[in-house]
Amino acid sequence: MLKRIFSWWNGATIGALFDIKRRGASVGEDEHGNHYYEERKPSLDGRKRRWVIYNGLAEGSRVSPDWHGWMHHTVEDPPTVAPFKLKAWKSRTFPILPARCARIAPKAASRAAATARPRHPITNPGSRSK
Predict the structure, then answer these.
(1) 64: closest CA among 54, 76, 56?
(2) Start-end of H helices in 1-130
(3) Closest CA to 64 of 79, 77, 53, 51
(4) H or E segment to which residue 28 belongs
(5) Which residue, among 96, 38, 92, 40, has the nearest Cα to 70 in the 3D structure?
(6) Is the pLDDT of residue 104 over 70?
(7) Are strands 24-29 and 50-53 parallel, antiparallel or unpaired?
(8) What's the confidence (pLDDT) of residue 75?
(9) What are phi and psi of 71, to 5 degrees?
(10) Distance (Å, rounded) from C-alpha 34 to C-alpha 90?
(11) Are 70 and 30 in contact (CB under 8 A)?
(12) What is the pLDDT of residue 40?
């Protein structure tokens, strides 16, 4: 419960959830489990605000291209009404994982780098001879 009150990176805070449920209407859900909302009444500039409540870690790369276009007002209808047609040469996107989650170098390469001798000898700049 405290996580919902104070941390926004694990979904949405209770205040944000209350405000979005009060002012917005649910539009749909994507394959990652993220929920999308749109404001019921347009704001002063004539556009309706749009929100996403992430399922888990709040990471922008977890929004698929079709929902991204709808969130940024590129397309008017959400993907639940007008599905996004993916070109034959494009592929679905995958979330970008932080470096601590995705190990890029194999273990053998990192072990070899840790035991390798440095290319240049380590010098102490304070002990220069004149």
Answers:
(1) 54
(2) 2-6, 14-23, 65-71, 107-115
(3) 79
(4) strand 24-29
(5) 38
(6) no
(7) unpaired
(8) 87
(9) -60, -35
(10) 22
(11) no
(12) 92
CB 5 within 8 Å of CB 14:
yes
Q: What is the pTM of this model?
A: 0.61
- The widest CA-to-CA distance across the chain, in whole angstroms, is 78
Q: Give the phi and the psi of residue 83 in degrees, each rounded to 5.
A: -60, 145
| Amino acid identity, position 25 | A
Q: How far apart are CA 115 and CA 121, in angstroms?
A: 15
The tokens of 64 are what? 């698929």
The two structure tokens encoding residue 123: 């010098």
List beta partners, residue 29.
35
CA distance 39 to 49: 5
User: Residue 8 corresponds to which amino acid?
Assistant: W
CA distances from 100 to 6, 20, 54, 71 (A): 24, 32, 20, 29
Cα 13 off chain centre by = 17
Say if residues 48 and 42 touch (Cβ distance below 8 Å).
yes
Identify the CA nearest to 81 among candidates 22, 23, 18, 28: 28
pLDDT digits (tens, 9 = 90+) for 88-97: 666 665 656 6
* DSSP assignment letter at 98: P
